[in-house]
Amino acid sequence: MAEKKLPFEPYKIKTVEPLKITTREERDKIIRDAGLNVFSIPAEKVLIDLLTDSGTSAMSNRQWAGIMLGDESYAGAGSYFNFARSVKNIFGFRHVIPTHQGRAAERILFQVLLKTGDYVPSNVHFDTTRANIEVLDARAEDLIKAEAYDPEIVIPFKGDIDLEKLEKFIQGKGPEKIPLVMLTITNNSGGGQPVSMENIRETSRVCHKHELPFFIDACRFAENAFFIQKREKEYSSKSILEIAREIFSYADGATMSAKKDALVNIGGFICLNDDVLEEKLRNNLIVSEGFPTYGGLAGRDLEAIARGLEEVVGQDYLAHRIDQVGYLWDLLNEAGVPVYAPAGGHAVYILADKFLPHIPREQYPGWALTVALYREAGIRAVEIGGVMFSGKDEKTGKDKFPELELVRLAIPRRVYTASHLNFVAQALIDLYKEREKVKGLKITYQAPNLRHFTARFEQI
Ligand code: F0G
């Protein structure tokens, strides 16, 4: 396995956080005490944590230096101006409003723009954007191209929205029912796949033809820009910064979770050009997030975001980042482990129903795989399948499962080395060889909403 070209880490390690090694016997008890739910395990009992790439990045020495320089003034802090300068340098919008994380940006934007019965189309909404739309009795509509639901098709931009569907949707519902259109780049809920510049440009054209604002969910904009540079011919000699600027030049605004592509542990923002809308968003922000020059963050957090955004558009950083994900994907794919194709920007997604074909969807193969992976190797992954996205068929009242039963291995930025990835791949390959030993599960407790966080299970 190790003869493959290792992704070269473009950093050296200055501070270390020891990993605690546990035995299989200890982990068996820990996971049983946790009700067979990896969200309920103490993190210190996890060896390699691939639960999320959100808020888990390692900061650089420059960012840590910025933490010490943070200006904690309530109003007009210097760190806010550094933050705003850094955001504007990439995103180009006139206004930027800090928030404590991505979903706060979504809540504020939607509370101001949406009313009951409205629609918000997107390629695919992430769960928090969907939830923030649905709590306002509006509808979140996914209009991605059909290929995205086929885990085997390899096309360069599997995150593209279906422009024909979008045009029809706007005409069908009427533009007055659609306060904005969104695009998620990269598409987290669909394999971490990128959206092409052409698709972004065309989405903008369709929106503006109907005089609809076009917003980008920009969490992973730098990873998306890297794919554009590698896969869209006319961008091969452009820098990531130039590509990112062009992406946002087509939009009217963006929401951002800085916990991803700003390389920090907390933070977010909204940016936009419209002066009237900005004033309304700012007034909403003050009620719950804080004064507009800190928006629920400390001055030091703003300083870390400012510096993280400068680093995330670096060519060497991004090449390694995307290489790491591709490397793990290749190791698994070559060993026959079923994975969603092609590799995404921040995570490898395992096709759990193909990995464990003897476990029916009603017995949650994805969840069973996360439990087995923790028990056997101490690795924590997240199910994105029948437990997370359960539903009831409105007509039959029976359980309805999402199209894909996935387990996501999200890679934190700058945290793990190639040898950690080898370890993860080997653990999955070993588990795949013994897959028939993994058993299905039944739920013994579930909360009415977002049940995956607290549900408890028993083995069947
Ligand atoms: N949009 C996308 C595409 C996301 O992936 C996330 C978070 C958010 C918005 C919300 O941002 O967490 O800062 O409030 N995704 C995390 C994940 C939770 O694990 O994929 P937040």
Task: Summarize the model shown.
The chain has 460 residues and is of the alpha/beta class. The protein contains 15 helices and 16 strands. The chain has two domains: 24-53 and 314-459, Alpha-Beta Complex (Aspartate Aminotransferase, domain 1), CATH 3.90.1150; 61-312, Type I PLP-dependent aspartate aminotransferase-like (Major domain) (Aspartate Aminotransferase, domain 2, 3-Layer(aba) Sandwich), CATH 3.40.640.
Kindly describe this structure.
Helix 2 runs antiparallel to helix 11 (299-312), helix 3 packs parallel to helix 11 (299-312) and helix 12 packs parallel to helix 15. The chain has two domains: 24-53 and 314-459, Aspartate Aminotransferase, domain 1 (Alpha-Beta Complex), CATH 3.90.1150; 61-312, Type I PLP-dependent aspartate aminotransferase-like (Major domain) (Aspartate Aminotransferase, domain 2, 3-Layer(aba) Sandwich), CATH 3.40.640. Strand 12 (391-392) and strand 13 (399-400) form a beta hairpin. The protein has a five-stranded mixed beta sheet, with helices on both faces. A three-stranded antiparallel beta sheet has the order 9-14-11. 47% of the residues are buried. It has 15 helices and 16 strands. The chain is 39% helix and 13% strand. The mean pLDDT is 96. The chain has helices spanning 24-33, 61-69, 78-91, 102-113, 127-134, 163-173, 197-209, 221-231, 240-249, 275-288, 299-312, 315-334, 352-355, 365-377, 418-433; strands spanning 48-49, 95-99, 119-122, 139-142, 181-184, 214-217, 253-257, 268-272, 347-351, 379-380, 382-384, 391-392, 399-400, 406-410, 441-445, 456-459. The two termini are 35 Å apart. With 460 residues, the chain is an alpha/beta fold. Ligand F0G is lined by residues 52, 54, 101-103, 126, 128-129, 184, 188, 217, 219, 257, 259, 268.
